[in-house]
């Protein structure tokens, strides 16, 4: 049974990507990073509507990381690897129960087909591997055997001739195979360095009694949890109900790292129930987080209570990411560990992290060219003034484009695209990408905070609310977000609230000293304390390293767009904190 237009069905996309995660977690695919990467590329391209246009060249370059000069006419590498993937998928589904989603790749093509696997479904035949080319040598081409001639000729009995012919054919076939590019690449190349993947979070069913009310509430709670948890790159989410019954509770199945369980029990309040949630580290058996609250009497109140919990689990500095950081003895590994380090650099701008983060993100993109989160991170790093890239804006734009192309359903990819547009002053395009990112992940304070920060620069009325929501979910959001939030609150006449935000800020490390001083400059000016505002402004100048620069160039050192720089100057100049800009 087909599922229709897969390029526009977002619900199907989520189901398919969950199936991809389940397949990738199996031991066979865990040992084959090239196959995992190829599967993700083919599935994402098909979901984006490009399945029918897939060719050997794009599969090799975009899906398998080959160089742009790859010759698809003479090198069968992509066809060999897709054939291998097709066989692995067939082997995987031989063990699947009736009624599950099935991904197939038809022989001769690269598009992924999605269907429902039922007891009546046709079985896809495995793809046969062709024998090495080359005709066998006919026996009559050998020299005649007789008594005449040298001793070595007379020793060639018919049996020996046949044996030597077979041996020669095998040797020549082996040489042809070994010298072929596809064999060298697939079997003789050095071991491929793997990209570290996100941990697996298995969500158990909510433990409830048999009363209809509890059953209904348990189903709603679990539906919200499953909807929210899978939207972040921090974890790969697995539904415990899809694990075979014999394997449930076995932490070794599929490499489960965390298990989230819940229970609904009657509360003392008449007709009300209480929800208990607990997160266990399946590797150690220790419970690392728990929460409980009274379920609302009306369904409308359930989402506001669960959103902060989901955010606590899956944000870059939440429970799971913090636990993973505590397990890492050293960073710099391509993939997941590198992205965790990137988030630290993005928040703190620690100079000691800049070089290792740049190196590991570059390596991650090289090893996994369809990793949207890594491409989005690389886009930001291209903008980073500390890297001093001449082609920074152009490179950032190209990396953001690749991130969206790699995964159109990645919030991080659309955030990168929005950043490129806003910094270029393209408010309309930036707003479109921002709206898409918020829709894709409304549980992420880092997404809402950054987009509120960017939208503020284009006078979007939602900016203040987004930044305030982000701060409520994560009080330790990056320092530079506070500048836009404080200005937004002051513009709306909320002076006391703006000053409270400034007072609650924690002094950061040296990487964010300039941004922190700028936020305190604005707050001091709002209080009317001009001497303190002037002192803080001098700290901004010192941190920027531009003692003889104009206010615009000093603030520009912190990567703010022209529109935000203008807003800061428009607030501080009339109060006499900084010189008024020279009219052009």
Please provide a written account of the structure:
This protein has 584 residues and is α/β, with parallel strands linked by helices. The chain folds into 5 domains: 10-117; 139-188; 200-324, 3-Layer(aba) Sandwich (Rossmann fold), CATH 3.40.50; 328-441, Alpha Horseshoe (Serine Threonine Protein Phosphatase 5, Tetratricopeptide repeat), CATH 1.25.40; 478-584. The chain has 25 helices and 7 strands. It has helices at 10-24, 27-30, 33-47, 56-63, 77-93, 151-154, 158-179, 181-188, 212-229, 302-314, 319-327, 336-348, 351-367, 372-383, 392-406, 411-423, 427-440, 445-456, 463-473, 479-491, 495-503, 513-527, 530-544, 551-556, 562-572, and strands at 100-105, 112-117, 200-207, 236-239, 256-266, 273-281, 286-294. The chain has a 5-stranded mixed β-sheet. A hairpin with a 6-residue loop joins strand 5 (256-266) and strand 6 (273-281). Helix 9 packs across helix 10, helix 18 (445-456) packs antiparallel against helix 19 and helix 20 (479-491) packs antiparallel against helix 21. It is globular, with a radius of gyration of 30 Å. It starts with 9 loop residues before the first helix and ends in a 12-residue tail after the last helix.
